[in-house]
Amino acid sequence: MSLLVIGGTGTLGRQIVLQALTKGYQVRCLVRNFRKAAFLKEWGVELVYGDLARPETIPPCLKGITAVIDASTSRANELDSLKKVDWDGKLCLIEAAKVANIKRFIFFSAQNVEQFNNIPLMKLKYGIETKLQDSGIPYTIFRLTGFYQGLIEQYAIPILENLPIWVTNENTYISYMDTQDIAKFCLKALQIPQTTNQIFFLSGSKGWVSSEIINLCEQLAGQEAKIQKIPLFILKVVSRFFGFFEWGQNISDRLSFAEILSAENNFSKSTFELYKMFKIDPSEIIQLDDYFLEYFIRLLKRLRDINFEDVQKQKNLVI
Ligand SMILES: NC(=O)c1ccc[n+]([C@@H]2O[C@H](COP(=O)([O-])OP(=O)(O)OC[C@H]3O[C@@H](n4cnc5c(N)ncnc54)[C@H](OP(=O)(O)O)[C@@H]3O)[C@@H](O)[C@H]2O)c1
């Protein structure tokens, strides 16, 4: 089976690519910058030029492809790209997939997407879900929560750098997931026919509130967080001025994310039944505390190595 991955350079996409290669799939990645994607080529991926914001570049990328895995989304720093990438580009991708007779199309959406028409990315995601369902292409849609990887930028780095962390008075539990585990589900979907034409809510096995994540980071970093509390309703008012939504990256994320958190939602809904269907043992799933522990151990080791190199350099200078 040959796969076309879109978003292979991204946080989730690269995990999908890595696991797909390990499983022996032929992997092609649609990329818009070969230099940035050089690491994928080193892993054994075939790179093809394509840009979702330039629809004419999409159809040739699908030649000889069996399944499409779309893990792309517009980058938060490319301000005018939201509609071009997450709507126009995706519509063109679905159309091209139909023409190419693609046997499975995997798309990543977000939890509670149907409830947040006021958030542009959520609205577009929901629209694309519908278009994909109507396309006649065998599909699998995963509705995701936040990624562990996003929590590093949101909590761990600010604590380490003594920068403020914004928290609201919200107390919602969120079952974040490691992208390695999401990738596992994604690739299993290709092997399990019952996952065709289905929408799955994927989330981790344990819900976390932000204060627990902060405590965990404080313990591991041996440093206290500078917490800035802001009432949720103020965040909501401010968020009206930010029309853009992109998870875990800039201020508008935090604002829109807060809005999602404030609603009745099922973020922490258990996905254990799913694990059975996907033949994934829940004990294989990486827990957030283990993920953070590994991150801090790696970081401390790096800092020690840098320190060691500096001492060596100084010794050499003295000699
Ligand atoms: N992050 C979360 O917490 C979260 C939560 C729920 C759902 N999701 C969804 O999960 C999926 C993966 O998210 P992620 O956080 O891994 O994404 P990401 O790290 O932001 O990566 C985005 C990917 O899309 C590519 N891309 C952007 N614009 C493009 C264009 N014009 N043409 C072709 N490729 C383009 C990027 O390529 P470049 O490297 O060239 O920029 C990159 O590979 C997305 O659909 C996202 O909406 C994410």
Automatic annotation (TrEMBL):
It holds the Pfam family NmrA. One of its GO terms (biological process) is photosynthesis. InterPro entries: HCF244-like (IPR044256), NAD(P)-bd_dom_sf (IPR036291), NmrA-like (IPR008030). Keywords: Chloroplast, Photosynthesis, Photosystem II, Plastid. Its main location: plastid. Transmembrane segments: none annotated. It is found in: Plastid. Residues 3-255 form the NmrA-like domain. One of its GO terms (cellular component) is photosystem II. Gene3D superfamilies: NAD(P)-binding Rossmann-like Domain (3.40.50.720). It comes from the Eukaryota. This is NmrA-like domain-containing protein.
